[in-house]
From TrEMBL:
The chain crosses the membrane at residues 21-45. Residues 151-270 form the OmpA-like domain. This is OmpA family protein. It comes from Marinomonas ostreistagni. It is a single-pass membrane protein. It is found in: Cell membrane. Its main location: membrane. Belongs to the MotB family. Residues 71-114 are annotated as: Disordered.
Length: 300
């Protein structure tokens, strides 16, 4: 046997019909996640206001410091800073079983506004306002747009067809008739209303007012009075303010005629809640918070 070399035979076993692995599932999941993020970005671009877009852009330009756009380190300012919640877990206002407490004016029908409702409201207002002579004669005098706060109607002054007497809060007859017609349209909608008055940056030189702050406030109140005269319910008025020239419509030219305007905003439910909460925190009295451990024995 020593005369022959040993022969080694190696047999390669091939598995047929085995498992092919799950790599394709991971690739499909990554693709679906990327598409979801892509459409989310498109949605944000579509619904965000110019101020929110500028804030987001500034955040990504410099997320660790003050951005070049003048915004802070948060992509969107939600009106406060992160803080520990002081909300009590015990709700002392729970209704009795089988009963429902009567909703207050500010709670009734104040939830659930979404983009679809705003679109429908905007379309209805555009259709109704087509019948107003002021819009048909000079369309750029009125602008209707959807904002994060709701649907905003902006009435812009025109030197050839002004809204007020020069340097006064006295409405011209044409503008007064327009507001009376708008009040009839607003009666078809139950959303709260905010009215703001604006002026250009020209120094006030008339008589009867101290400055543009007084003038813008009086013009906003004049618009409110006409809307109430037209049948708008008083409780629908959520806020009436004058902003002088602090929020110009035309930022390039602060003295532009466009900056003399009245804005009427039909607020969404969430915007109305934020307005009430902010007003109570800033201007309300001392907040009283009940202790959850309070019992009749400790009180009496």
């Amino acid at each position: 046997m020593n005369q022959y070399e040993p022969v080694i035979r190696r047999v390669k076993k091939v598995k047929k019909g085995g498992h092919h692995g799950g790599a394709w599932k991971i690739a499909l999941a990554d693709f679906a996640l990327a598409m979801m993020a892509f459409f989310l970005v498109l949605w944000i671009i579509n619904v965000a206001s110019p101020e929110e877009l500028a804030a987001i852009e500034g955040y990504f330009n410099d997320p660790v410091g003050v951005s070049t756009s003048g915004y802070g380190t948060k992509p969107i300012d939600l009106g406060g800073s992160p803080a520990k919640s002081t909300e009590r877990k015990l709700d002392l206002d729970l209704p009795e079983p089988g009963s429902t407490p009567e909703a207050s004016d500010e709670q009734m029908l104040r939830s659930g506004n979404d983009g679809d409702k705003l679109e429908k409201m905007n379309a209805m207002l555009v259709e109704q306002f087509k019948s107003l002579d002021r819009v048909n004669s000079n369309e750029h005098n009125m602008k209707i747009e959807i904002t994060p706060e709701g649907v905003r109607i902006t009435l812009i002054d025109d030197p050839d067809k002004p809204m007020f007497e020069r340097g006064s809060s006295q409405l011209v007859p044409d503008m007064e008739n327009t507001l009376l017609s708008m009040a009839a349209i607003f009666k078809q909608i139950q959303n709260p209303i905010v009215i703001t008055g604006h002026t250009d940056s020209s120094t006030y030189i008339g008589s009867g007012f101290q400055d543009n702050w007084d003038l813008s406030s009086e013009r906003a109140n004049a618009a409110k009075r006409v809307l109430l005269e037209g049948g708008l319910e008083h409780r629908r008025i959520a806020q009436v303010i004058g902003l002088a020239d602090t929020v110009p419509y035309n930022r390039v030219d602060p003295q532009s005629d466009e900056n003399r305007r009245i804005s009427i905003t039909l607020m969404t439910d969430e915007a109305y809640k934020r307005l009430l909460t902010s007003a109570r925190l800033r201007y309300g009295g001392q907040q009283v918070e009940l202790d959850s451990s309070m019992t009749p024995e400790t009180v009496f």
